[in-house]
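Sequence only, no structure available. Ideas?
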Amino acid sequence: MSANVIPKRYAKALLSIADTPQEMEAIGKELGIMSEMLSNDEEIRKRLTSPLYPKPSKIKLLDEIINAADFSANVRNFLKLLLEKERLVFLKQIVQEFEGLLNEKLGVSRVQLITAKSLASEQKEAIQAALQNKMGNKIVLEADVDESLIGGAVIKLGSRVIDGSVLSLIQRMGNTLAKG
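Reply:
I predicted one. Tokens follow.
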């Protein structure tokens, strides 16, 4: 089975057990917390995913984490299933697939806005409103700063990229001049 198929299959299954959009979002948040923990804490990641540790100690550690985080029953059961099937190593990809499927189901588009300088919240809200108007669905705007852009902005929506940065303009001008 392909490594890309596994996260998608688990994400679809998880999405199918949630009844309401609020429950789906809550599941996504809880899984995101666990995924973040596995990404940031190498010791926990090793103890839960390495074949060197016995399954009973993995189960005990996962139960401690689940109880401390007070995860919902669906997430508890899902994480235990992943541990049992030795699929916790795919949690980050499962979370990404789940978020994509959830956004698709709810009609939400994630847009990455990259600017040379940090924007005020009013500017971000105006850009978000303009994009929502243009696209006709809800936009979740993720703003990042990349000082190498010099000025302007780059907007990424899925595979579409709108590059209005000064750096891009300078590069295009340089290419034009080089061609003669």
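Helices lie at 5-17, 21-40, 42-49, 55-69, 73-84, 91-106, 121-135, 166-179.
Hope that gets you unstuck.
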